[in-house]
Fold this sequence. Notes:
The complex is a heterodimer. Chain A folds into three domains: 4-47, 2-Layer Sandwich (Uridine Diphospho-n-acetylenolpyruvylglucosamine Reductase, domain 2); 56-160, Uridine Diphospho-n-acetylenolpyruvylglucosamine Reductase, domain 3, CATH 3.30.465; 164-267, CO dehydrogenase flavoprotein, C-terminal domain (Enolase-like, domain 1). Chain A is 34% helix and 27% strand. Chain A has helices at residues 14-21, 71-75, 78-82, 87-93, 98-101, 106-110, 118-124, 140-145, 212-220, 224-237, 248-267, and strands spanning 4-9, 26-29, 41-47, 56-59, 62-66, 128-132, 136-139, 154-160, 164-171, 181-190, 193-202, 209-210. In chain A, helix 9 (212-220) packs antiparallel against helix 10 (224-237) and helix 10 runs antiparallel to helix 11 (248-267). Chain B is of the alpha+beta class. Chain B folds into two domains: 2-75, Roll (Ubiquitin-like (UB roll)); 76-150, DNA polymerase, domain 1, CATH 1.10.150. Helix content of chain B is 36%, strand content 15%. A five-stranded mixed sheet of chain B has the order 2-1-5-3-4. In chain B, strand 3 and strand 4 form a beta hairpin. In chain B, helix 3 (81-89) crosses helix 6 (139-150). Chain B starts with a strand and ends with a helix. Chains A and B meet through strand 1 and helix 5 of A and strand 4 of B.
Amino acid sequence: MPLKILDYVRPSSLEQAYDLLQEDGAEILGGTTYARLSDRTIKLAIDLQNVGIGAIYEVGDYIVVGAMATLANMQFHDLIMKYADGYLYDVISYIWSVQLRNVATVGGTVVPKWGFSDFITGLLALDTEVEFYKAGKMKLEDYLKGPMIKKDIMTALYIKKTPRKASFKFMRNSEYDFSVVNVAVSAVKDGDKFTDWRVAVGARPGVAALSYKAMEVLNSSVDDEAIEKAAEEMKNELKFASDFRWSGEYRKEVAGALLKRAVKEVIG
Amino acid sequence: MKINLKINGVWKEVEIDPSDYLLDVLRREGYLSVKKGCDTGTCGACTVLRDGYPILSCATLASTCDGHEITTAEGIADEMEDYIKILAEEGAEQCGFCSPALLVMLYALKKEIENGKVKKTKEDIRRYLVGNLCRCTGYVGQERAIFRYLGVE
């Protein structure tokens, strides 16, 4: 049975949307691209396109991306194209198709914590926070690790403009497909040194997670031995599982190889 | 519920169910260039423009398009006549099922190239069109026609 929507509403303020969301059976519509494949009934579908959370702008040290911005809005925004040598532009440009990126929204991708997401892995390697209307701001990693936040509205992403160098690597069965595993790595360049490493691994097939052990190793050294060790630590720390496409063991080995390539790309 | 869509330059009031996808509404209204292919957001045969940008009509709820401008291949056929000619000359059309969506994407691509958002290189053009599948696998002919139309060596 396809998705069934009993009623649709387009509120004009966040406050109004939040109140409507508290009704039994009410849900927020994201980009609606993935909803297509579900078979549930939504009593009241709330469309946020008129509540004013679609803009992308700078505030202090942060790039703020509204939850209703599409992935394409974000990809082609000057702030995104300039930050970290266009790293996020590259991450987004490989997500499915132009047509999908013009529909899929930032909030609709982050809130459900999609396991197959390249976007979430890419963001997790940066200093990213997620903001909800009532729950406020939290680190992206804390949101991903915590329970789903229901009956609240994601309003924006905050990406700190730390001077990072970043690299995103993925493996797919074909270019036009979801990643079967992906790795994003970044570090702050401080003169000749690289500090504050972040290592995110996604599509394991679970939602992206940081490898704190790999980050610890890289923060002490980035010689060849340390890079090898970081890959091994990541493979031991994170869980990899099997699905109809790849086995967990194969994912784990490929993730290790991608991590090494990504670190080497960052240090140049 | 009733929604208003500006389809190919003409405002229309359309009766829909809140669960309807734009693809089904457009076909019901007679815009048969919009094809129902995979119906899962993959093949791109349902591509239309919403406010000038290509979207998957099979993955877009019609209700969310209320008040927006929709363009189908019927609405740009005259402007794209040169390309349609080249498509025929290059033997790029096989069954023709994917051609209207490709026409819509090429129209959008041309604008993105003019706006400087997509580079006029073979690689960038291929990446822009990755979401338009041809089930006859007639890509070589399509590429030949597209590169010739855009003047890419």
